[in-house]
Structures are given as C-alpha cells and as structure tokens.
Amino acid sequence: MTAVEPQLPLAESPSTAVEIGTTATKVIAGRSRIPWGFLGGRAAFYLFTLWAALTINFFLPRMMKGDAVSQYLARNRNVSPEAADALRALLGLDTDKSLFQQYLDYWGLLLHGDLGVSLLHGLRPVTEVISQALPWTVGLVGFATIVSFAIGTIGGGIIGWRRGGRLDALIPITTFLSTIPYFWLGLLAIAVFSVNLGWFPIGKAYGIGTSPGLTPEFIGQVIHHGTLPAATIVIASLGGWMLGMRNMMLTVLDEDYITVAQAKGMPQRRVLWGYAARNAVLPQIQSFALSIGFIVGGTIVMEMVFSYPGVGKLLLDATNAKDYALMQGVFLVITLSVLVANIVADIAYAFLDPRTRQTEA
C-alpha cells in the first residue's frame, strides 16, 4: 500500500473549496485592502497640522505692533482709561496675564466654540460676523472655481486627446488671459461691461434698497451682480486647469495600457474617459483641493475690485484694525477649509488610483 499524505484539517486550511470563488473569499480579501496604517498616519498628520496652524494663529497677531484697543482709541479719543481697560479684559488683552495663560484661555474658549467678540463690529460675536460674510464668498468664488475646473479639465482632456488640431489654439489664449493681473482684468471688465455697455452693475452683491430674502427679486439681483466677478474668476483661472490637463493627457497617451486598449478595439470614448482622462486627472485633484480650501480667504482682490462682501474683505479690515478675535476666527475657517479639502482630495485620489490603496495597504 502506498502511504497516504497527511491532509490539513478543514478548519486549519487557508481556503476551502466552498470558500474559493464565493463571497467569503471576497470579504476576506477585501479586509486586507483597507489601509489602516495609511488612515491612521493621515489622521495624525492632519491633527498635528491643525494644532500647529491654530497655535500660529494665536501667536502671529500678537507679534504685530499695536492691538485692537489701541486702534479703537486712536479713532475714539473720548474713551476713558477705565473703559479702555475693560475692553482689554473683554478681548483677553489684559496685561496681568502671561502669554502662556492667554494661550491656555484661547484653547479653552476655542474648544467651547467661543471665538470671542469683534471690536470692529461693535462687540458682535465673531461667529455671527463670519457667518454673514461666508455665504457670499463660498457662493460666488466656490461656484466660479468649480466651473473653471470642470471646463478646464474637460477641455484640456479633449485638446490633449486631439493633439495637433485646431483646438490647440485655445491653450495660448487661455494661458495669456491667466497671466493678466486679476485686478486689472476686473477693472477692464467693469469699464467695458458695466460703464460702457451697462450690462452689469459696477459692484456690490445686490442692489440698493433690495431686502435680502428668498424672493425672486433678491435672487435675481444676486445673480445679476455676481455674474461679472464670477466670469472674471473663471477666465483668470481657466488657463491653468486647461494647460495642466492637456500636458498630463499627452504624457498618459504614450503609456502602454493606452496602446493595448486601442489595439483591443475599445471605443475611443471609453479609452478617452475610462483610461486616459482618469489617470491624467489625478494631479488635478490635489490642485483642485487646494483651490477649494483657499476659496474662503483667497478673494481679497476680487472683493476689493467689485466691492463684494465676503471673508476676504473681512480679513483685510480685521488686519488693519488689529482685531485679534476676528482675525483668528477667519484664519480658523480658512485652516479648517484647507484641511477638509485635502482630506477629501486624499479620499478621491485613493478612489481614482487603486495603486494608492494597494501601496499603503
């Protein structure tokens, strides 16, 4: 008789005949694909970044000369010394506390959601002041950024796919427009379309005498006033998106998997959007995340040119008035928006590029 080779028990075998090709195998394999180390490392990185940004947010305004009370006393000379001391105590600027104690108080108030009061806006809560300016910035600049990204990415992908065609002429035109200083482009748009043609208002978010509310008249005023600044933002940023996507498409089209996909007879539309554009858009995702994050605070020039109410103008006024509480509140909103945008970009990048998940796993 021949010797019978020992067999592994069913419970100890790495995979059974029942499990092979079934859902159980997919579940087991799926568990190993979750990049827990990557997620933990990114979470630790973002928490450290948040702490560092908020710490700099506390110390940086205090390194500037003067403070909000000094600026207020320079504009209002009839304030008594007792009232000035009360204002310093209210704003956390009293001199009897050390800088470290002020830092601890700052974190204590921050964890309770208290951003302080704004002396520039009549001791109103900072959260209330920012909440009134934030929708204008996000609504206008956010919409314009998304539109410019979509048009630039899709257009750049098509131009790269049809390289050597007539559409290549759009690249130098849009690139030239993106090199023009934004304030000059905005002033030129106002001179042509507002002053000479009279198609759009010169500035402001809505007409004088219009009551804010969810009414057709108010919504129409907001769209009418926001069309010109939104169009200038799209024109100024379109060239970068289009040029970047077009260059990435030229690089991707030389890859072997594109050649193999075309050799297999796949439809050209599927090769374009399912293979070439999907890989070419990956670097655009990171840039788009940064653009989304800086929407909150990167609109000072636009809001100054068009007299548009928003967070950028609010930050500029707070800096000039040394309003620490308002400056810190705006910086906090900007920091959180940038971090959230980068987190979303990491998730989108891992979803679009399976190599990221496999490498980190």
User: What structural class do the secondary elements suggest?
Assistant: mainly alpha
- As for the CATH topology of the domain at 134-309, it is MetI-like fold
Counting DSSP E segments of at least 2 residues, the number of strands comes to 2
**Which residue ranges are poorly predicted, with pLDDT under 50 across at least 5 consecutive positions?**
1-32
User: Count of helical segments?
Assistant: 16
CATH superfamily of the domain at 134-309: MetI-like
CATH architecture of the domain at 134-309: Orthogonal Bundle
SSE pattern, N- to C-terminal: HHHHHEEHHHHHHHHHHH
Helix content: 55-70%
Could you name the CATH class of the domain at 134-309? Answer: Mainly Alpha
Overall residue-averaged pLDDT value: 76
Give, in spatial order, the strands making up the sheet with the most strands: 1-2
Calculate Rg over CA atoms.
28 Å
Query: Whole-Å distance between the termini?
Result: 49 Å
Largest sheet: 2 strands, antiparallel
Shape: globular
- State which percent range the strand residues make up: under 5%
